[in-house]
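New to this. Please check this fold:
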Amino acid sequence: MIEVCAALLRGGPAFLAGEALECLVTLRNPLPPDATSASSEMLAWASAQIHCQLHASESRVALPPPDNSQHDAQAESETVFVPNRGERGQCILSTPPKILFCDLRLDPGESKTYSYCETLPVDGPPSFRGQAVKYVYKLTIGCQRVNSPIKLLRVPFRVLVLHGLQDYQLPQDEAVAPANPFLEAEEGTKKDSRLADLASELLMAATSRRSLHLYNISNSRGKVAAFCIFKTVYKIGEEVVGTFNFCAGDIPCLQYSVSLQTEERVQEAFQRRRGQPASYSTQARHQESCLHTSRTSFSLPIPLSSAPGFSTNVVSLKWRLHFEFVTAREAVALQGVCSEGQSEAASWTGVERMEVDTFSWDLPIKVLPTNPLLASYISQFSSSSTLTL
């Protein structure tokens, strides 16, 4: 028996596309060291590969059948390394497989650790779990004992895509700077650090711009309120803050609600039926009664577990604020009822019946990814996985 453990480095299972994913693969013979030499274990080889699997809803997405023209008959054999063997959906992206070792012998109590490193492709989609499609990334490690079928160890992780990082190039002064030959192993770490710093700069520059956006909200009867928001570009984890000024309106507003929603739309070429509507998911919601309210505000957090806006050849994801208003058709006055024997005391009661109108409004916003270290804190994935051969 051999125990195989794969652990992602850097402290979390979330990465930016373009970063290097590093994983330590440890193999151990769990028998005590004083066991006989006949208890030694032999492994023929082990290999690792990253792939992205597309899962599509059959009722919403019409994917073309997979191309079987290059089907390899050996792939059906249990002795051939196929990372997505047994999984549903289609493999839309994969890195070249890397061999970790060949002909490994482990004596009782002995262990060996191997390092796997691969740069995540920048042309892939972000990790996403929607109603129509799912994009799932996994690192798969295949191990084979001598004269035994392959067993697969999978480590799922999350990928965030920030457009513009793929154009990043090292500055010329860094490329020609003197290098320490004793620190060559840290070069990948330095590059990832610079990439993470660049991503933070790009996100900060895109989301820190503030300018006053004013909107007059009206229906067929007149003006209801003035709405103010200071920016329309956010990153995951931020809060969307807006304010209402009902003093600027002519029509009484009884109640309003604001929903932070994602719009998932299947591209026309892959729609199951023509004119297929988009799917909407509410990420956060605020509702308030506002009769006789002069000013009010709302704050909606963008969940760290959500996906930023993106577009692929199959589906697109956009963000919006969805407003719903309930307005009165006539002016609403306070009704006072005096208490007996108390000329100055009065209780206020609401009207029993009121004619109302309802209407809605949508405001598109843009949501970008966040720092992968921050996203790792709430990730549902574990940074390590184990397998027994």
